[in-house]
Amino acid sequence: MSDAKKQVMHQWFEEVWNKGRAEAIAEMAAADMIVHGLGEEMRGPEGFKPFHTSFRDAFPDIVVTVEDVICEGSICAARWTATGTHRGAGLGFAATDKRMSVSGMTWARIDGNGQLSEGWNSFDRLGMLQQLGVIPAS
């Protein structure tokens, strides 16, 4: 079962982020999914979609490369790298046309139906904003 859960993690990043398929969110996330660490807590696919839309607007060419996935029981952890060009105002400020590359981690609970039911996210937002020139590097 661990391999199937690893595949869910890879598929999430490929379909939702790399292909930008917003409809994949509802296909892969449980109706009562909870997302932590990306701002205000988000609930359900509809709660996550605004974040997805704004981030994909900011980085329409985003590519997330999954470096590692480990699973134990219902929990999977993924280490990833995201790259993209800031071409939209989805982050709340004008596009800078600068490239960014950040690393991050996502822990997810995958339910018995193979859907994401809870996720905890952490990525280098400060580094991203510094690369975009929004916050000066110290």
Main sheet: strand order: 2-1-6-5-4-3
Shape: globular
CATH architecture group name: Roll
Mean pLDDT: 95
- What's the domain count? 1
Q: In sequence order, what are the helices and strands, one letter per element?
A: HHEEHEEEEH
Helix residue percentage: 25-40%
What do we call the CATH topology? Answer: Nuclear Transport Factor 2, Chain: A
Which structural class do the helices and strands define? alpha+beta
How many strand units?
Answer: 6
Please give a handful of descriptors for the protein shown.
138 residues, alpha+beta, Nuclear Transport Factor 2, Chain: A, six-stranded mixed beta sheet, 37% strand
Write a structural description:
- By secondary structure, the protein is α+β, with helices and mostly antiparallel strands.
- It has one domain: Nuclear Transport Factor 2, Chain: A (Roll), CATH 3.10.450.
- Helices cover 33% and strands 37% of the residues.
- It contains four helices and six strands; from the N terminus they run ααββαββββα.
- It has helices at 2-18, 23-28, 44-58, 125-131; strands spanning 29-36, 42-43, 63-72, 75-85, 99-110, 116-123.
- It has a six-stranded mixed sheet with strand order 2-1-6-5-4-3.
- β5 (99-110) and β6 form a beta hairpin.
- The longest helix is centred in the first third of the chain and has 17 residues, at 2-18.
- The chain starts with a helix and ends in a 7-residue tail after the last helix.
- The mean pLDDT is 95.
